Amino acid sequence: MSSLYGGTSQRRVTVRDLAAAKESGEKWPMVTAYDAMTARVFDEAGVPVLLVGDSAAMVVYGYDSTLPVTVDDLLPLTAAVVRGSRRALVVADLPFGSYQSSPAQALESAARFMKEAGAHAIKLEGGRRVLPQVEALVSAGVPVMAHLGLTPQSVNALGGYRVQGRGQSGDELMADAKDLERAGAFAVVLECVPTDLAARVTTSLSIPTIGIGAGASTDAQVLVWQDMMGLTPQPARFVKQYADLSAVLDSAVRAFAADVASGVFPGPEHTYS
Predict the structure, then answer these.
(1) What dihedral angle (degrees, nearest 10) is formed by the CA atoms of 108, 112, 118, 120?
(2) Quick one: 233 exposed, middle or buried, by C-beta within 10 A (0-12, 13-18, 19+)?
(3) Coil vs helix vs strand at 197
(4) How far apart are the C-alpha atoms of 222 and 14, rounded to whole Å?
(5) How far apart are CA 172 and CA 231, in angstroms?
(6) Active-site residue, 26 included
(7) Phi, psi of 30 (to 5 degrees)
(8) Model confidence over 206-229: pLDDT tens digits?
(9) Which of 46, 203, 247, 259 is deepest in the core (most CB within 10 A)?
(10) Which runs of E-coded beta strand occur in the chain?
(11) Which one is catalytic: 26, 125, 181, 191?
(12) Which pLDDT tens digit goes with each residue over 76-135?
């Protein structure tokens, strides 16, 4: 594949393509998706990796954290994204409580995403404490994307949504990243970590790093699409807003409602004789 972002190949992007992009120094985007229609738009725009994040807990199901969402909640969303896309690698988040207790539980959950939803890879949070899970999944043929730094499923233990990896904890995060690479993870998300730490981790690893609030030195960047499109009322500092869909939707639905109330819609061109 000559180019990861915007490439013209009709086959699915693979983890080998991501590794090749790391070697060549090509940066690439990852975006969340939760339904077939937006997945199609992002896929046709050339985004090479789509993440069905447990962020669906907030942006789809209306919870105030990622913790309540379940495997059964995320399976149909993942299947929809797979059906809606043609080229992107689709990564499914393993939600809280679906992998922490044992490697066997992790494999059972991952197998459901692969078999029932057609996911191409899974993502899980944590460092050394989940190494047995990562090793078991990789040994079973499941590509694993790791996630370090601010891990939202551990927000209560972390004391809230705060920057991670300052001081001595930065050395621990570096050690976790190297351990996850040795365990077979094909990439690692770095969320809300200092820019210099993210740069050091990226240089130290042979697998791609994906930043979210981690500065510009990572190999890739990911955002929740509702955040970047202006649907989230108060997005995090690391979010750049690329559109104001909230205003577009508000204007459109008000125009529709006004047309209905005044009797303008439906007009003759919208009716059948």
Answers:
(1) -20
(2) exposed
(3) helix
(4) 17
(5) 35
(6) no
(7) -125, 135
(8) 999 999 999 999 999 999 999 999
(9) 46
(10) 28-32, 49-52, 89-93, 121-123, 144-149, 187-191, 209-212, 220-223
(11) 191
(12) 999 999 999 999 999 999 999 999 999 999 999 999 999 999 999 999 999 999 999 999
